[in-house]
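Re: [ENG-882] Designed sequences occasionally contain unexpected residues at chain ends

Forwarding the minimal case from QA. Structure tokens:
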């Protein structure tokens, strides 16, 4: 029997009429959510920028770390992926715990731990130490990203959440735009300072900001709009009314799950897990290996590699915000998600085919990276559309943690392929193939799930 929650809708290609921002929100509502965005998002974006940088800067460190410590590419890929095993174990509990203790305490705890652990990588000497720290870093950061996705649902109704999520998720490629040249400069300019290698300085210098930001969380965030002194009573009432309207819509769709068992029995949640695996394989394949892919095009200086690596990340930052705005304007999610997967597949496959032509290969890699971030942003628009309450907290944690297994598979497989073939082409083709599967899975999502 066909499951209606996973089967394609006959009207899938029919889009809702396009609406201007003023039609959707009204001038007063638009001003309110613009005000909230300016108060909430800059700090969250900054936090996630450094969180993501601390997660993936190992991709730059490996340019010299592997040679210094005599690690194989497979050992690096396995260690990079172990991050997601720690994530898997601790993410859902962390997200549910945030519902109980509040966002401020949760975000502060996560940032402080990951900053200190990231700095500890400077003193790694053996593969086992590297593996343990990567696992602990994943456990420490578990809950941060899905917690913020959940946190945004406390402030923004679904009709504007795509734009806000897009702005927040711009921190992922922006961490590359800023972090790639910074990492390259540290690796290039700090090598052998005070007896430490450039990769050691990389971990020490890029871990510090996370610790500082953790100490600022209690002063710059509130758990809910009701606690925000910078909102008037009428503004708080408006936010509450808009979120209540969302809640009623979710309730009509059967989105409130009073228990973990009920949430796990929802086929829509497992459809999201499958999509999350596909986007994670692309996301972390690019994030952990982009410096190596650029190096394999013939560039050796870490500073040059850092500057060139910033180009695909910048394209990703622009593309994900454009697709999020377009999706909100049209109130359509599926085809925007499919476009992201197809763009990533085409660009990544072309980058491997054009490997002998560095400029063309870098251009194709830029297109592929843009598609990766488009797909990641659109995929994370979906869970909050049909889930609510404590069920949403648990579901987002489960989706991201199980889906994050793709983040384990991707870098590990890339490492094994590189060791076996002395080339990353096979791994890149694998990621492109998974993106095609993601597009097929996205097409099979029913219209009533993805268009809101």
């Amino acid at each position: 029997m066909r499951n209606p929650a996973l089967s394609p809708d006959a009207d899938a290609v029919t889009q809702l009429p396009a609406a201007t921002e003023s039609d959707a929100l009204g001038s007063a509502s638009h001003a309110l959510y613009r005000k909230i965005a300016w108060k909430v998002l800059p700090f969250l974006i900054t936090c996630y920028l450094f969180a993501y940088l601390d997660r993936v800067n190992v991709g730059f460190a490996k340019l010299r770390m592997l040679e210094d410590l005599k690690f194989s590419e497979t050992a690096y890929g396995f260690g990079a992926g172990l991050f997601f095993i720690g994530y898997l174990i601790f993410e859902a509990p962390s997200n549910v715990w945030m519902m109980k203790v509040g966002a401020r305490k949760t975000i502060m705890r996560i940032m402080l731990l990951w900053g200190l652990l990231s700095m500890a990588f400077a003193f790694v000497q053996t593969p086992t130490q590297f593996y343990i720290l990567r696992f602990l870093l994943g456990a420490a950061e578990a809950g941060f990203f899905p917690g913020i996705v959940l946190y945004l649902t406390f402030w923004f109704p679904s009709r504007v959440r795509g734009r806000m999520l897009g702005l927040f998720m711009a921190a992922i490629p922006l961490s590359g735009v800023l972090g790639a040249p910074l990492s390259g400069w540290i690796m290039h300019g700090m090598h052998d300072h005070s007896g430490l290698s450039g990769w050691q300085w990389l971990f020490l210098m890029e871990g510090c900001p996370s610790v500082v930001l953790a100490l600022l969380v209690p002063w710059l965030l509130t758990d809910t709009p009701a606690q925000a002194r910078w909102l008037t009573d009428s503004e708080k009432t408006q936010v509450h009314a808009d979120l209540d309207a969302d809640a009623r819509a979710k309730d009509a769709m059967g989105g409130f799950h009073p228990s973990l068992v009920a949430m796990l029995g929802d086929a829509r949640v497992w459809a999201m897990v499958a999509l999350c695996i596909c986007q994670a394989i692309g996301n972390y394949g690019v994030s952990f290996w982009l410096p190596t892919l650029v190096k394999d095009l013939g560039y050796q200086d870490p500073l040059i590699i850092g500057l060139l690596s910033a180009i695909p990340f910048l394209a990703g930052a622009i593309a994900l915000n454009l697709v999020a705005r377009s999706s909100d304007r049209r109130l359509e999610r599926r085809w925007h998600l499919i476009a992201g997967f197809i763009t990533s597949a085409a660009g990544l496959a072309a980058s491997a085919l054009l490997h002998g032509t560095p400029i063309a290969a870098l251009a194709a890699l830029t297109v592929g990276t843009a598609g990766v971030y488009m797909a990641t942003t659109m995929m994370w628009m979906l869970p909050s559309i049909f889930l609510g309450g404590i069920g949403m907290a648990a579901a987002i944690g489960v989706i991201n943690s199980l889906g994050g297994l793709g983040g384990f598979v991707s870098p590990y497989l890339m490492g094994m392929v590189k060791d076996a073939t002395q080339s990353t082409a096979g791994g890149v083709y694998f990621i492109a193939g998974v993106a095609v599967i993601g597009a097929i899975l996205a097409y099979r999502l029913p219209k009533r799930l993805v268009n809101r």
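QA comment: On inspection the terminal residues look reasonable. Residues 21-56 form the longest helix (36 residues). Proposing we downgrade this to a documentation issue.
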